[in-house]
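Hallway conversation turned thread

IA: we were arguing at lunch whether anyone had actually written out CRP/FNR family transcriptional regulator end to end. Turns out nobody had. So, for the record, here is the sequence (216 residues) and right after it the C-alpha cells. Reply here if something looks off.
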Amino acid sequence: MTAAATVEQLYPAVAALPLALRDQVRAQLRTTAVPAGTVLFDEHQPCLGFPFVLDGAIRVSKPAANGRELPLYRVLPGETCIISSSCLLGHADYNARGVAIADTTLALLPRPLFDTLLADAGFRGFLFHLFAERMAELMQLVEEVAFRKLDQRLAGLLLGRGRVVRATHQQLADELGSVREMISRLLKGFAEQGLVALSREQVEILDAAGLRRIAA
C-alpha cells in the first residue's frame, strides 16, 4: 500500500476530499521513517508541513529550562498534532518538542497545500474537531497538575497501565512531568504499604483498591 493510500485509510477527511485535491495530496506527500528516540521538532524550529502519522507514536512535551519536560499528549496513527496545526495556522515556530517513542513513519503535507485544503469544509471540520479533542485533553492535564498531588497522579498512571507496568522510574517521571528521585521515593512508599512490588524496570500492582483510594 502506498503512503497516500495509507493516509486516506487512516484519515477519512483526506479520502473525502474532491478528486482534484486528493490528486494534489498524492503527488505532494513526503514520507519519512525515523527510529525511536528521534526528535522530530523542537522549540523555535519552523513547522514545514502538516504531519500524518502512518505508524508508530510521537510524544509531544513542553521542555523547561531546568531540563524537565511536561508531557502534553501523544500522537498515534490516524491522529495528528495540534501544535503543528497551530504553528501552520499562526505562521509561528514550534513552542514544544516532539519525539518519536517508537519506530515511526510520517507523511508530511507541505504548508502551501495545507493552506489550500483549509478551503475544504470537510478538512476544516476535521481540523477543528481535532482541536476540540486535544483542548479537552490539555484542560484535563492542567487540572491534574494544578489540583492533584503527585502521589495521586502516579497511582492513577499505574492503574491505567494494567497489573504489570513495564517502565523505568525515569519514564514514569517523564510521563508525569516530574523527576526520577520523586517518583522513586513515592514508589518505595507504595511498596512499603504493600501496594506494589518493584523490580528492574517493572512495577507490579498488588493492591489495586489501595491505589484507587490514593488516586481518588
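OS: looked through it. The chain has a mean pLDDT of 89.
IA: good, adding that to the notes. The chain has two domains: 3-146, 149-215.
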